[in-house]
Amino acid sequence: MAVIGIDLGTTNSLAVCYRNGRAEIIKNSLGEISTPSVVSVDENGEILVGKIAKERLISHPEASACEFKRDMGLRRKITLGGKDFSPEELSALVLKKIKEDAEKYLGEPVDEAVISVPAYFDDNCRSAAKLAAKLAGLNVQRLVNEPSAAALAYQAEHGFCDGTYMIVDFGGGTLDVSIVDSFDSVMEILAVAGNNHLGGKDFNEAVADYFCRENGIDRESLSPDEKAIVYKLAENCKVALSDTPAAMMVANIGGKQYSLTLDNNKLIEISAPVFERMAQPIRKALKDSKCSIDDIDDIILVGGSCKMPTVRAFIAEITGRKPCTDIDPDTAIAVGAGIFAGIKDRNDSLKDIILTDICPFSLGVKILDERSGNEVMSFIIERNTVLPSSREELYSAVADGQRKVTLQIYQGESRIPSKNLFLGELDITFPPAKRNELVCAVRMTYDINGILVVDVTTAADKKQYNKVILGGSGTMSDAEVKSCIKNMEKLKISPAEKEENRLLIARAERIYEESLAEEREAVGMLLSAFQAALKSQNSRDIRTAYERLSELLDSLDN
């Protein structure tokens, strides 16, 4: 049975298989490479998916839906033909169509897939993607971040060379920006940032609003059919500006004809808020990765919206660099997902490639800030930490005689716990403690399958508590979950306790005592930096500090 990679896009979806040493795009039943992510219900209650459904967006807007990927994991209902659907159910219908087309194209059953998702998807959204796959009859044990998939496609095109890259994935409904480091056939994400509600759709809305303003039309007063017509014409106008200096919109509304001529300069002007929202994740990704733009070897643009000249020019302007445009932005993510499917299927030509993942949002617990008396977050695993990861923090009593605490676990970046995603809780009891006395150690271990294990050990009586939070594990069997947890056990060793780290520290201390003056100062400085990196528990910082200290010690020993 084949394993395929799927780019489940906001606007269009594609499938790719890896065979005969290359990624091969799978054509659908119409002989086309992409399937519109659109679902419609006809008058007889029949479900229509893809291009036919897209054609009905204007003629039957109340019975058709698109861009539902934006609502994945948000508990919303979309009514089509008198029946309610969740975004996951609509996505499942698209995935089922892709599965059926892939089976026909390949001539064999397809029951397993790797699906790409925005890197900024939280656990709810990732769970929703896996649920959609399960409803479509697909086994999805692994999701791949869209920028990671794009980086794989880029590397395959350029021969898997070392370098640091910025991936800007700007599609119909989401924006992801990732900084990816490639070394020795290992691809490691250094940082991600993005916006799950920013995409080409926002340019369509800006053009539609401008058209209505210029023609004195109250857009909200239009009928559903008229709104759909204006929106579609706005989209067509935006697309036309990718190839021509100016484009015209002409719409018949209420028996009257309205028109508008638009060029790219005016598009930039009316879309200024969209461009500003684009700039924020780019700046954040660079900051979080601790890279400057000079450290970036190439800027890779993927996603349909990156074909817009205004988008390319804007990215070039704010980065001061001309982006790479030699890979197809429409197919790059699907190709990367297909390559990853080949890696997962243990294809011989890909066996040496390792793709790491990161934690897109921070994980932590709610604590009481004694100075303000407010409940705040204590982060244990920070965002952009390479997965799998295991981190530990110590906590003290907040009042004399305290005997228990309810440990509440959250995912997110806000200092205010209630603004983050609640994941679960643990009730912890311990002997009466004095204020500021250590009461427990909390360790979080998080893996690439979205499984979070929280281990708590009380300080006084060494009682142990454990909670497993299965984010996005709806398609995993109990045996698979247990296997993942077993593999994570070896992670529950602090980086400071690893034998090679202790050996390096001992060696540095020995050489420090043997050295004088500048040499002793250099060893002391790099040893302190290494110990600080161990304390941070950041694997990339530890690796960098380890290598620098080792290099110095080798030179002094020799």
Q: Can you walk through the features of this model?
A:
The chain has 558 residues and is of the alpha+beta class. It is 36% helix and 31% strand. It contains 14 helices and 28 strands. The strands form 8 sheets. Strands 1, 2, 3, 4, 10 and 11 form a 6-stranded mixed β-sheet that branches. The protein is globular. 44% of the residues are buried.
Helices and strands in order:
Blueprint: E1 2-8, E2 12-19, E3 22-26, E4 35-36, E5 38-41, E6 47-49, H1 51-59, E7 64-66, E8 78-80, E9 83-85, H2 87-106, E10 110-117, H3 123-135, E11 143-145, H4 146-158, E12 163-170, E13 175-183, E14 186-195, H5 200-214, H6 224-240, E15 246-253, E16 256-263, H7 264-270, H8 272-289, E17 298-302, H9 309-319, H10 332-344, E18 354-355, E19 357-358, E20 363-368, E21 375-381, E22 386-387, E23 389-396, E24 402-411, E25 421-433, E26 438-446, E27 451-458, E28 464-470, H11 478-488, H12 499-514, H13 517-536, H14 539-557
Parallel strand pairs: 1-10, 10-11, 12-17, 14-18
Antiparallel strand pairs: 1-2, 2-3, 2-4, 5-6, 5-7, 8-9, 12-13, 13-14, 15-16, 19-22, 20-21, 20-24, 23-26, 24-25, 26-27, 27-28
Helix pairs in contact: 2-3, 4-10, 5-6, 12-13, 12-14, 13-14
